[in-house]
Specification:
Blueprint (H helix, E strand, L loop, with lengths): L1 H4 L3 H9 L2 H10 L5 H15 L3 H9 L2 H8 L5 H15 L15 H8 L4 H8 L9 H7 L6 H15 L3 H8 L2 E2 L2 E2 H7 L7 H16 L8 H14 L6 H15 L3 H8 L4 H6 L7 H6 L1 H25 L4 H7 L5 H10 L5
Antiparallel strand pairs: 1-2
GO cellular component, one term: GID complex
Keywords: Cytoplasm, Nucleus, Repeat
GO biological process, one term: proteasome-mediated ubiquitin-dependent protein catabolic process
């Protein structure tokens, strides 16, 4: 079937008329079907969807969307990718109602969770973002009020992915209302210290990306008084290693193009001194108190150094006075030692 339908619209139509679609969907959803068979079924269905608009209508009439969305819950990456590829083909057709993607509130968060699975999942899901021009932003924004922390986080991560280097989406997010509050105001609330660190970091990313995309001014209080201090907090040695890396890299991106933000950051909470600590892993103290943590630090020390270098570069990109703070002061020696030897300083 797969070989017969590739590039042949007449054969695709014939198979649909002969009732192939219900049979393929049956096999796709059977627990007794092997993963390989399910994947092949999704591939054939995707090929049928690439035919005429009538083909897509026939697939929709057979309720293909719920079956493919169910397939995304599989643990097999190849099957997931095949389902996503088919979904992308169907949803890029003008005959497919976009609201079919939002009948289940858990679908969008799950799609966002799949972003990190592979390059292909990113590619196939990214094409779904064209739906942001058709009301999808509001559907996802509504998830930020969910009682489930996991759903709120996936919605937040979705916005951070979509706002990155995307002026159109960032400007759209600026004016979205959720229960009477603008979306940036909700992001700011999620930056508060009493919120989980993951939520603080992801909210800071959203605001950072919106700022860099030109939707929020660099001198806006939500950037200067909320986002920047939050990211500096993430650089503290009290934070987990991964949080420090993510915080420093996001802060570096925020500061990269704005001299005033660079100046403010350089005098916020002893940031430059904090960065010097990025080069002190693994330390003898951690070796004595926690062998497991020492092993973790050894594996990831290079990530800390790389993040620190990025932030140093952003801090000193435009202002000579800031460069002087980094060079002769307490932040200089660790940088020099790490860059020359690739090891921690003494």
């Amino acid at each position: 079937m797969k070989n017969a339908v590739i590039g042949n619209n007449k054969q695709k139509a014939n198979l649909i008329v002969l009732g192939a679609v219900p049979r393929l969907l049956y096999l796709l959803q059977q627990e007794t079907s092997s993963t390989e068979l399910k994947t092949e079924c999704a591939v054939v269905l995707g090929s049928l969807a690439m035919g005429t608009e009538n083909n897509v209508k026939s697939l929709l009439d057979c309720h293909i969307i719920p079956a493919l969305l169910q397939g995304l819950l599989s643990t097999d990456l190849k099957f997931i990718e095949a389902c996503l590829r088919c979904l992308r083909t169907i949803f890029t057709s003008p005959v497919t109602p976009e609201e079919l993607l939002y009948t289940d509130a858990t679908v969008i968060p799950h799609l966002m969770a799949l972003l990190s699975r592979s390059r292909y999942t990113q590619e196939y899901i990214y094409h779904q973002t064209i739906l942001f021009n058709h009301g999808a932003v509001q559907n996802i924004a509504h998830l930020l009020t969910s009682a489930s922390y996991k759903v709120r986080m996936q919605a937040l991560k979705c916005f951070s992915v979509l706002a990155f280097e995307n002026p159109q989406v960032s400007m759209t997010l600026l004016n979205v209302l959720v229960d009477g509050e603008l979306l940036p105001q909700i992001f700011v609330k999620m930056l508060q210290r009493d919120k989980p660190i993951e939520m603080q970091l992801t909210s800071a990313k959203c605001l950072t990306y919106m700022c860099r995309a030109g939707a929020i001014r660099t001198d806006d209080t939500c950037i200067v008084l909320k986002t920047l201090p939050c990211l500096v907090r993430m650089c503290s040695k009290e934070r987990l290693l991964e949080e420090r890396v993510e915080g420093a890299e996001t802060l570096a991106y925020l500061l990269e193009a704005d001299v005033e933000l660079q100046r403010i950051a350089s005098i916020t909470d002893h940031l430059i001194a904090m960065l010097a600590d990025y080069f002190k892993y693994p330390s003898s103290v951690s070796a004595i108190t926690d062998i497991k943590r020492l092993d973790h630090d050894l594996k990831h020390a290079h990530e800390l150094r790389q993040a620190a270098f990025k932030l140093y570069a952003s801090l000193g990109a435009n202002d000579e006075d800031i460069r002087k703070k980094v060079s002769p002061g307490e932040g200089h020696a660790p940088v020099l030692t790490a860059s020359k030897q690739g090891v921690t300083s003494t």
